[in-house]
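Exercise 7.
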Amino acid sequence: MSELLSTYDHLGICFEKSTLQLLRSHWAQAYLAMLATAFPDRSKGVRAELLHARIEAYLEDMDRASIDLPRRGDAGKPVAAKDLCVEQWMRKNRWLALHPLETGETEYRLTSNAIEAMEVVEKLGSVEALLSSPRVEMIVRAIESTALMVNPDYEAGLLQRKSQLERAQRELDEYISNGGAGETPDSTVRASVANVMDLLRQVPSDMRRIEELLIDQGNRLLEDFRDDVRPPGEIVGDYLERSKNIFEATESGRVYSGAMETLSNAQLSGTISDDLKMIASASALEDMPAEERLEVRRAWSPVRSGVESVLRQRRKSSRTIRSSLTQHDIAKDRELARELRALEKLAWEWARAYKRGQRSPFSLEVGKAETESMARALFDPEGHRPPPALADHGEAEAADLRELIRRGGPKTRAVVKAIADSLPPTGEADVTGIFNSLDSGLRREVELCGLMQLATDIGIDVERETHGAYRTVSLDGRKHRWNAPEIKLSEETRQAFLLWKEEHDG
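Solution. The predicted structure, written as tokens, is:
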């Protein structure tokens, strides 16, 4: 029975975690639907005001559909979106976290608990089996590699490595003799892609967990500065040791360290991105919806953004330490903390000693400020006269719809169609040069904004491209020259460009 009770106690700790609290909630289905819709990219945040507006709209839609929702007392209306986000999801259950931005705004981010809950639900709802031949091969290779690492027998290890080398040589010879790798069944390719995507989807929650651990470590450091009587140097030393253990003693930390090693190699990171783009354009995935192929193309971005988010949090923690050491008087902070604890203790002692309804001994009245009388403006009849009547200019001119359209936003679909009609049949295509040869009506300055967004959508990193000259024509016919990132289409990005055109035709 002792083993049973130990297992029961361990499961009790697991069931107290926020991940299972979300899944066991009475409104779990509604909560997960709103969070998944509001955060299409789980690795990125959403501005606080925007999320409140989105959740408010979701609550109204679900209420009209008669879906069971948390409601405000006896009013019968769904709970306010802001209260749901702040009180329930952030403070009580820790499914959301609020982060300040450099612009002065704040944004919500999903915690690792919420991301894990979404992953569990996705796996339960998936009808596709991930135990495919590519997955088994990956498992076998991992077992062989691990056994090779720990094998203490020198001769056996040497024999295994020679066997691997011979196998690789046979595969190379076969590849050369066949003039390529040969045709791989579409089902095998799709299974391998599903395996890769499943592995990559697990990374954002690990990254978010590391970020949360760093935040907790920073908060603990601030508490130690106030409460610990040791010298500040010892406190910081312990903090640095704990931070080191995060990345060496936890599974999530090792995932982050491995990702950091990969991302530190710009060439390898670029190769991975290129490989994913090539996979998304494979003929075996032609039947896959465009949204899923785009997800494959961008699958490496959450890994990169997750590592960048952890790096930002580490820099923020470093600034916190520096600020606490250089701008705060630790002795005074500790004295203030002691006084606040003494006041809290006194308040609890009074609460236990006095009966319900008895007046508090503390004065709750705010003293009156001694100020001189304020001068007030006298009545001015001039300020109460009505404004003059509006002048009658007769009937207004009718709006010219064609002129309004001409002065409107980018006509990206028309520009893309014109560029597609001018693409060379093969080889690299220079979109910048083609744009400069288009009709003047398609070369407005605003069209550059649409082109840059299009390039980002099809996987071109415009921030790293060299700049070229774009010749634009303003509404009054004046010609201008703008320096902006060049857009060059390879065979892969050409297909993505044409796919974008097909999806947005009409």
